[in-house]
From TrEMBL:
Record's protein name: Protein kinase domain-containing protein
Low complexity bias: start-end ranges: 18-29
GO terms, molecular function: ATP binding; protein kinase activity
Region (Disordered): 18-48
Domain Protein kinase: 1-117
Domain of life of the source: Eukaryota
Length: 117
């Protein structure tokens, strides 16, 4: 993929909340990693020039004004209408966190500040 093709996919997947859109975003991230030699913060001169000339890349993240601890206390992982936590929701959350860390670690990125609050 060329940098132009990669960024076209980024523009199409930003803001998508569907599983298909999220899968596309992950594929885009892998393609960007491949196009930049797979190293965070290191770009090949050819891809840097192509991107700088034709595109501005914006990383958009959801603003979360709470913490995991506050969400747990508020019952966000509880069964609807029940004070009991949903084991399925808890396990899915843990799996999401583990997958995110696995992705970062595979690329040499260490978060270094992971905590529930």
């Amino acid at each position: 993929d060329t940098p132009e093709q990669i960024l076209d996919v980024v523009h199409m997947t930003i803001g998508s909340t569907t599983a298909q859109g999220q899968a596309g975003a992950m594929a885009t991230s892998r393609a960007i990693s491949d196009a930049t030699d797979g190293s965070p913060g290191k770009e090949s001169p050819q891809s840097s020039r192509a991107i700088a000339q034709d595109y501005k890349l914006y990383l958009i993240q959801e603003c979360c004004d709470t913490s995991l601890d506050a969400a747990l206390v508020a019952g966000c992982l509880n069964h609807p209408g029940s004070p009991e936590r949903s084991l399925e929701a808890v396990l899915l959350l843990l799996l999401d966190v583990a997958r995110g860390l696995e992705y970062l670690h595979a690329r040499g990125v260490v978060h270094g500040d992971l905590k529930p609050d």
